[in-house]
Amino acid sequence: MSDHDDLDARLAALLAVPHAGDPAREARARTAALDALPTGRRWPRRVLRAAVPALGFAALGTVLVLAVPRGESPSAATPSPAEEPLGVLRTPQGPEDHLPAWVAADPAVVANAVDPASVRLAQASAGRLFLVAHGRASRRDDGLRPTGSRTVCLIVAVRRTPGPGFRPGRPGNILCALEDSFAWGNLTVSLPGTHRTVTTPSGTFTRPDVLPLITLVPDGYDTLHTNLGTFPVKANLARGAYRWTLRDAHAPFLTGPAGRRALAVDLPRWRSADLRWASFAGFQPSRPFDRPVEPRTMDLVASRIPPWAKRIAAGGRTTAIHRRDTVVLRSVPVPVAGTVIVTVSGVGKAESTALGAGGYGAGYGGALLTPYRRR
Amino acid sequence: MEPSDHDLARAAAAGSRDAGAELFRRHWPQARRVARAVVGRDALADDVAQEAMVTAFASIRRYRGDGEFAGWLRRIVVTRALNALRAERRLVSLDAAADMPVDDAPHLADPALRDAVAALPGDQRIAVALRYGAGLTPTEIAQATGVAVGTVNSRLGRALARLRATLETADV
Fold it and tell me: Is residue B81 within a helix (H) or strand (E), and if so which, with residue range?
């Protein structure tokens, strides 16, 4: 074999791309791509020119009658009951089935994330409401990506209305998953407290190795099993806990009349194709690779870093590892009480996020996000 | 007879999800392969390929049918992949943190060649990745990267010469 052939063969062997991709990932991409297709027929320009004056008067009258909310798309219709993957969404809407006023008042949430008419209260705790709703396709001209009409969303919202000092910086995080069965997995697994709020977490959390686990559950499953026990499924929602530091422990799974189904556990990691507005998205006890958990420190996972960002600092450190649009801030000291301010700064700009930390454990298990912009 | 990509694209532009689904079925594998060849990691390739498909479908009315749909899509994929790599370079490593793996998997095969490819100038490395990783022809690479075929051939030639020189030096 000549040198030329030899180099060609070595390059082909080194760089050849495996043909088999992840079918679930492909299915997600397929749904996202199809959701992006334009709807309706585009009319030729000269037809439009002739029709615009007449349509203008008709449209004016129609708008006055219909008053369609911003961002609503005719293609974002709620699926028919027969298609619903979650029984809770098939139930009649009752008086408790609505978004808290402070959430509903945020146009970014209602117009770009969920369909208020589909909201159902799945469960409630002393301090939080666990709501399920359909995502919605939305307009793209406001710079926000839609969650997509074929998604279901879990909204964890505090009951208490934020105080007058509350100043929204950007929309919070709502976890949404594609309805198709393949998507049930890590997209639907959520941590509490990742939805924007301004309150401190309720209760204390004293086990940094335990991950609260909240997940939407499709029909046909009634129990969530984790390495800490079993947790009942109620209204398509399971609330449990998982000891994440046991790497060799079995992954959580669901059981019920539909059989057994594994549940992927992952820290939520939003990608640009999912939700654009995710900022500081997760946290975990600091555990450097192959080392034990570091006491009184945590790792913060942030995604959708602003394009102008040059530096990221938290708790006096700037350690960060970048994985595309996700940054992991390592070993951030957690104060016994107070907040951790994470600052993203660039040329002439700075944006901060306060992570409420009611104590070491709470800082991990229930830290809540308070995004705001520093002027 | 199967509809052409052009027919499917027109139907998809008019809102047909079925046509869009067929287009996706035909072109996803190569979109992902091209993305994977450029970015080198599976997870990032999935993201890039998905974003490229979403971009292509959202702007499918701009596809006029005067060239292959596959070529038009490849251009979008490569642009997205390069943007992803640029964004990564811009933000990477605020501080040294070598104890956490970032790559999906370690590359164990042919480390000398891997290092030599990694040391190539960017445009040559992309040409090599698309040629040997995605299996594109020089014409297809030219379409995807927006340069002339002669430029692609020149980049490939220079890259191979450089690789040979590097490997020979390493063997000494």
Answer: helix B69-91
Q: Looking at residue A200, what is its pLDDT?
A: 19
Percent above pLDDT 90 for chain A:
5
Calpha distance A216→A152 (Å, rounded): 9
* Shortest Cα–Cα distance, B70 to chain A (Å): 15
CB contact under 8 A, B28 and A26: yes
Binary contact (A330, B100; C-beta < 8 A): yes
How far apart CA A9 and CA B164 sit, in angstroms, is 13
CB–CB contact A325 B87 (8 Å): yes
Tracing tokens 């009480």 back to the chain, one arrives at A337
Contact between B50 and A320 using a beta-carbon 8 Å cutoff: no
Find, among A252, A329, A256, the residue nearest to A298 by Cα.
A329
Q: Give B67's pLDDT tier (boundaries 50, 70, 90).
A: confident
pTM reported for the whole predicted model: 0.42
C-alpha dihedral, A178 to A181 to A185 to A186, nearest 10°: -20
- Indicate if ipTM > 0.90: no
Q: What CA–CA distance (Å, rounded) separates A344 from A347?
A: 11
Say what the pLDDT of residue A250 is.
61
Among B53, B102, B129, the residue with its CB nearest the CB of A321 is: B102
Contacts 24+ apart (CB under 8 A), B112-115: B112/B167, B112/B170, B113/A10, B113/A11, B113/A14, B113/B163, B113/B167, B114/A14
Instruction: Test A21 with B32 for CB contact under 8 angstroms.
Output: yes
Kindly identify which residue of chain B lies nearest to residue A33, measuring between CA atoms.
B54
Residues of A in contact with B15 (CB under 8 A): 37-41
